[in-house]
Automatic annotation (TrEMBL):
<keyword id="KW-0805">Transcription regulation</keyword>
<keyword id="KW-0238">DNA-binding</keyword>
<protein>
    <recommendedName>
        <fullName>HTH cro/C1-type domain-containing protein</fullName>
    </recommendedName>
</protein>
<dbReference type="InterPro" id="IPR001387">
    <property type="entry name" value="Cro/C1-type_HTH"/>
</dbReference>
<keyword id="KW-0804">Transcription</keyword>
<dbReference type="Pfam" id="PF06114">
    <property type="entry name" value="Peptidase_M78"/>
</dbReference>
<dbReference type="Pfam" id="PF09856">
    <property type="entry name" value="ScfRs"/>
</dbReference>
<dbReference type="InterPro" id="IPR010359">
    <property type="entry name" value="IrrE_HExxH"/>
</dbReference>
<dbReference type="GO" id="GO:0005829">
    <property type="term" value="C:cytosol"/>
</dbReference>
<feature type="domain" description="HTH cro/C1-type">
    <location>
        <begin position="10"/>
        <end position="64"/>
    </location>
</feature>
<dbReference type="InterPro" id="IPR026281">
    <property type="entry name" value="HTH_RamB"/>
</dbReference>
<dbReference type="GO" id="GO:0003700">
    <property type="term" value="F:DNA-binding transcription factor activity"/>
</dbReference>
<dbReference type="InterPro" id="IPR050807">
    <property type="entry name" value="TransReg_Diox_bact_type"/>
</dbReference>
<comment type="similarity">
    <text>Belongs to the short-chain fatty acyl-CoA assimilation regulator (ScfR) family.</text>
</comment>
<dbReference type="Pfam" id="PF01381">
    <property type="entry name" value="HTH_3"/>
</dbReference>
<dbReference type="InterPro" id="IPR018653">
    <property type="entry name" value="ScfR_C"/>
</dbReference>
<dbReference type="InterPro" id="IPR010982">
    <property type="entry name" value="Lambda_DNA-bd_dom_sf"/>
</dbReference>
Length: 456
């Protein structure tokens, strides 16, 4: 394992607990001089001592993990590059993040607020210039705030995952057939009846609508049984876990009413996925099937995208799945979903890389594509991607088309069925990609779309 020098974090732990070096050293069973060397980054924070800290103070070991550093380092370098400042070297960025992670996060948050303010000013100027009346609109950046909240929790919300699994078991639900018991629970406990919209009304009304006056949950008729169950589970989250959602949103420290609204939607959807694909049963199936997404989709009665999203949330302490990253894009390159349970960096500026396999999925519908991707920092990842289509069926009824990607660190690729027959140890087999043209260090890339903000 790489050595972890995290002296400032240990000092911060002492300050928060009001402990002297001698007192903390005594609790950890080490000498005060040894602790002093750790705090001064003269000695690494070993795994054994991290485990003692966890036992003494019940602190998540990920607080002392290097995995979060990769996100912060890349974000800090992105922020400085976009601001037109001299780019930090990797060594400088790592030193900043390792020693003062709170300062690094503050820099990123200040940049996010500045960018949101600038975008809001541009929008106001455009509206006033065109002679339109000033209307209310969502503050730019709220989606990033919700995504950051989920990513900081490694895309795993135990407060929702565990109740979802308990409801699945207590209600006698069966894998792949959750809808029947869900409809029964909604009717018996909440007097809610489920009805289907027919024809074009379903397309106009969206995926789900609840009428509290008639206690009716209306769903589009084009949804498959697993999708219907998902939407019923979303409604169940609002009915049975409202106080939990309130607490998570309150503790999340969201900056606006719009970000809190989006967070509530995201958390309710998280619960729904955890109920339709309960943790232990889903993880065991994933391991048994070599993470074959199409077979998992068939077993649990849900779509390809839903399975990919659920795979990116399996980070329960003591029983984790593979640390996946999940992304969804449209043909124009807009990223509408991105979640990371590990250290892959989705750039905040400059779009994404056109050499990324996720964009190739649009040209080969129905096929699952694979890619070994090499990043400028030397890290290698394994990606799978496929096009997905959703929406009403029938001639002349518009549908939504996306491509979804699921990735993991290359060292985990052998556990995936998709890596069979690939030479995972051959560096030349990797496609050199970046996080986005504006912040990519590959200046000679033939696919470059705009000049890099990062100096040579």
């Amino acid at each position: 394992m790489a050595k972890s020098f995290m002296g400032v974090r240990v000092q911060r732990l002492r300050e928060e607990r009001g402990l002297s070096q001698v007192a903390l050293a005594r609790q950890l069973g080490i000498s005060a001089s040894y602790l002093n060397q750790i705090e001064r980054n003269q000695r690494p924070l070993t795994l054994a001592i991290q485990l003692r800290i966890n036992a003494q103070f019940d602190i998540d070991l990920q607080a002392f993990s290097d995995s979060d550093e990769a996100h912060l380092i890349a974000d800090v370098r992105d922020v400085l590059a976009e601001a037109g400042m001299e780019a930090l070297s990797m060594a400088e960025a790592r030193a900043l993040v390792s020693n003062t992670p709170s300062v690094a996060r503050a820099m990123i948050e200040l940049h996010r607020r500045n960018r949101a303010t600038a975008e809001r000013a541009d929008t106001l100027a455009a509206r006033l210039g065109d002679g339109h009346k000033l209307a209310s609109f969502a503050l730019p950046g709220v989606h990033d705030e919700v995504r950051d909240y989920l990513n900081q929790r490694y895309n795993h919300i135990a407060e929702l995952d565990e109740p979802a699994e308990a409801i699945f078991n207590d209600s006698g639900m069966a894998v792949g057939d959750v809808g029947t018991k869900l409809a029964q629970r909604l009717a018996e406990r909440h007097q809610v009846q489920v009805a289907l919209w027919r024809g074009d009304d379903a397309a106009r009304q969206g995926a789900r609508a609840f009428d509290p006056a008639t206690r009716t949950l209306r769903l589009p008729d084009h949804l498959r049984p697993g999708q219907q169950a998902f939407q019923m589970a979303v409604q169940l989250a609002h009915l049975e876990l409202s106080s939990t959602l309130d607490r998570l949103i309150r503790d999340g420290g969201f900056s606006s009413a719009e970000s809190m609204r989006l967070a509530r939607i995201g958390l309710a959807n998280y619960f729904a996925g955890a109920l339709v694909m309960p943790y232990q049963a889903f993880l065991q199936s994933a391991e048994d099937l070599g993470y074959d997404i199409e077979r998992l989709s068939n077993r649990f009665g849900v779509g390809f995208e839903a399975v990919c999203h659920r795979l990116s949330t399996l980070q329960r302490p003591g029983a984790p799945g593979l640390p996946f990253f999940f992304v969804r894009v449209d043909r124009a390159g807009n990223v509408s979903k991105r979640h990371s349970a590990a250290d892959f960096h989705f750039s905040r500026v400059g779009g994404t890389c056109p050499l990324w396999i996720v964009y190739e999925a649009f040209s080969q519908p129905e096929r699952v594509l694979t890619q070994i991707a090499g990043m400028p920092d030397g890290r290698h990842y394994f990606w799978i991607a496929r096009q997905v289509v959703s929406g009403p069926v029938g001639f002349g009824r518009p549908q939504k088309t996306f491509a979804v990607g699921l990735g993991c660190d290359l060292r985990h690729a052998r556990r995936l069925i998709y890596s069979r027959g690939l030479d995972l140890s051959n560096p030349s087999a990797a496609t050199p990609i970046g996080v986005g043209c504006k912040v990519c260090e590959r200046h000679a890339c033939p696919q470059r779309a705009s000049p890099s903000l990062v100096e040579r």
